Amino acid sequence: MTRTLPLLALLGTLAAAGAQAQDAKDAGKDAAKDPAKPAAPETYQSPIKNAKGEPIGTMTIRDGANTLVLRLAIQPGGLPPGWHGIHFHAVGDCSDPKLMNSKAHVNHDQSKHGLLNPEGPDEGDLPNVYAAADGSVNAEVSSETPLTGEGGLKDADGSALIIHANEDDHSSQPIGGAGDRIACAVIK
Ligand SMILES: [Cu+2]
Ligand SMILES: [Zn+2]
């Protein structure tokens, strides 16, 4: 699912009105390029906690007009060193020790899992992050999944950022072999 689908549907059914909407959109893009009038991204910050509920870092989301940017800052000792799969899961609940209350990946259109899957990705899929030898992470990844509005992370039951024990292979089902859920941040 992409953010442009509703606009395309509109163009298909209301050609004249759609053309006007496209003009308005182009005008908006021009305005966004003007450094004097930057569109302020919507921001959201939440603590990242391990499976024991101990804080290990901070997740910061900035959601612009077309893309969401997520920054992870995890302190030394926070994670086992190496690659870790991270995903948006469907429910904003990190309260149980195995972090299963956050349910499966955000996925409104029954896509297959995996950024590299020809039938994917689902809306929860994100690139892996790498924890340094001291267990710290500083990383930034992007996603087309919006923070608010239709299909947004802040829906009625919220969402969660889950960090897995292993890396995501970006193609196998259901979660790319990423293994246990070891850290979580609520998005509500
Ligand atoms: Cu996951
Ligand atoms: Zn997925």
Q: Can you describe this structure?
A:
The chain has 188 residues and is of the alpha+beta class. The chain folds into 2 domains: 1-39, no CATH class; 42-187, Superoxide dismutase, copper/zinc binding domain (Immunoglobulin-like, Sandwich), CATH 2.60.40.200. 15% of the residues lie in helices and 29% in strands. It contains 2 helices and 9 strands. Strands 5-8-9-1-2-3-7 form a 7-stranded antiparallel β-sheet, with no helix packed on it. Strand 1 and strand 2 form a beta hairpin. Helix 1 runs antiparallel to helix 2 (15-33). The longest helix is centred in the N-terminal third of the chain and has 19 residues, at 15-33. The relative contact order is 0.21. It binds copper (II) ion (CU) and zinc ion. Zinc ion is lined by residues 87, 105, 113, 122, 124-125. Zinc ion (ZN) is lined by residues 87, 105, 113, 122, 124-125.
Describe the structure in brief.
By secondary structure, this protein is of the alpha+beta class. The chain has 2 helices and 9 strands. The chain has a 7-stranded antiparallel β-sheet, with no helix packed on it.
Order of helices and strands: HHEEEEEEEEE
User: What is the CATH class designation of the largest domain?
Assistant: Mainly Beta
Name given to the CATH homologous superfamily of the largest domain: Superoxide dismutase, copper/zinc binding domain
Q: Write down the overall mean pLDDT.
A: 87
Helix/sheet category = alpha+beta
SS strand fraction:
25-35%
pLDDT under 50 segments (min length 5)? 4-29
Question: Over the alpha carbons, how many angstroms does the gyration radius reach?
Answer: 18 Å
Major sheet: arrangement of strands? 5-8-9-1-2-3-7
Question: What is the general shape?
Answer: globular
Instruction: Give the termini distance in whole angstroms.
Output: 21 Å
Number of domains: 2
The count of strands amounts to 9
- In the CATH scheme, what's the topology name of the largest domain? Immunoglobulin-like
CATH architecture field of the largest domain: Sandwich
Chemical compounds bound to the protein: copper (II) ion, zinc ion
Largest sheet: 7 strands, antiparallel
The total count of helices amounts to 2
**What is the helix content?**
10-25%
